[in-house]
Amino acid sequence: xxxxxxxxxxxxxxxxxxxxxxxxxxxxxxxxxxxxxxxxxxxxxxxxxxxxxxxxxxxxxxxxxxxxxxxxxxxxxxxxxxxxxxxxxxxxxxxxxxxxxxxxxxxxxxxxxxxxxxxxxxxxxxxxxxxxxxxxxxxxxxxxxxxxxxxxxxxxxxxxxxxxxxxxxxxxxxxxxxxxxxxxxxxx
Length: 188
Prior knowledge:
Layout: H1 12-20, E1 27-36, E2 39-48, E3 51-57, E4 76-79, E5 82-86, H2 95-102, E6 108-112, H3 119-125, H4 128-140, E7 143-147, E8 151-153, E9 156-158, E10 163-165, E11 171-174
Parallel strand pairs: 5-6, 6-7
Antiparallel strand pairs: 1-2, 2-3, 4-5, 7-10, 8-9, 10-11
Helix pairs in contact: 2-4
């Protein structure tokens, strides 16, 4: 049996995390394993000033994600003049997931990623992951921002796919492959 460390969004550990973020005006999109009413979800939580603005539960699960339940629904939320939404990792392979967010008026789609794979698969997906994000941007007319893990963990590796993509599909900034870092771009 697979043991999964998970958080309840209204639980004590999550409340502790939210309390630490009260003073921050930035909006954080955090990927986590969520426990809710006996289900376990791969969830992206959007947080601003210690308040959860939105929680998206991954709708497209990879065959290796059998520990998770399928989420439902795509939500957008406001940050200033922008509407944002999230998809998670493997969702980037499905145009309808990004289209569901764009149809609600989103200008930015955030993709928390975890492309940690066996070396051969990581090499095959090395450029395809960024290509998928570029396609989702161009198809929807939305900005896309992704954040990926990088490095090796046991027999798994990730080259990193942290980038920002314009609505025309052009990658405007990307963290150097294999390096930790932050992608910043002023889209004015």
